[in-house]
Design a protein that fits this description.
The chain is mostly helical and about 200 residues long. Helix content is about 75%, strand content about 0%.
């Protein structure tokens, strides 16, 4: 495993970086390095330093992170050379990869690397716009929920008001029934007394 990178092998490192960038581009380089780290070819520290080194190179955009078996073999030879082993490249494959120069980088990047800065700014602006749109959506949802919450509260208050009215109505109905019952009993009592008086009048 390639554990560390030093200044002495910087030219070979740049050569390897360009080799990978021409095939997978800056956009897929992290995945390729993750793969090499996962199979034990390089350490996490080496992967991190290679990504930093890639920022200094012309930007490329690749179709995928995968390489052919031959290209992986060439990467392994680069690793061996960086490790200090004198190995001759038996593949002799210097055919350009499928990655293409990033249009933004070609148009805007100057010798001071302003293209990278401008590209980063554009990416950040896009992210901010996406976040703002999501924030607006969330706020709209919150407003809708607030309206529904108010409607639910109003409905609950209306139900409680109707329940109170129903309770009061029930009490009034009970009172009315009691009064009616008393009235009926009084009427029965009055009729009974009347019959008693009538009976007394007949006996006399």
């Amino acid at each position: 495993m390639l554990q560390e990178l030093d200044e002495a092998t910087k030219p070979i490192q740049r050569e390897w970086i360009i080799f990978m960038l021409e095939r997978v581009g800056h956009n897929h380089l992290p995945k390729l390095l993750d793969y090499y780290e996962g199979i034990g070819w390089i350490s996490e520290s080496v992967a991190r330093k290679l990504l930093e080194l890639a920022k200094e190179e012309k930007r490329y955009r690749g179709p995928a992170w995968t390489l052919s078996a031959q290209e992986h073999g060439e990467s392994l030879i680069f690793i061996e050379r960086i490790s200090g082993k004198h190995i001759e490249n038996t593949f002799h494959s210097r055919q350009r990869g499928k990655a293409t120069p990033d249009p933004v980088d070609v148009e805007k990047k100057d010798e001071h690397g302003e293209g990278d800065l401008e590209g980063n700014i554009k990416e950040k602006v896009k992210m901010i716009q996406i976040i703002e749109r999501k924030d607006v959506t969330i706020k709209n949802l919150e407003k809708e929920l607030e309206k529904k919450d108010i409607s639910i509260r109003e409905l609950g208050e209306k139900i409680r008001e109707l329940e109170q009215q129903l309770d009061e109505t029930g009490k009034e109905i009970k009172k009315s029934m009691i009064f009616r019952g008393i009235l009926q009993e009084n009427m029965k009592l009055a009729k009974a007394r009347h019959r008693v008086h009538e009976g007394n009048g007949i006996n006399m």
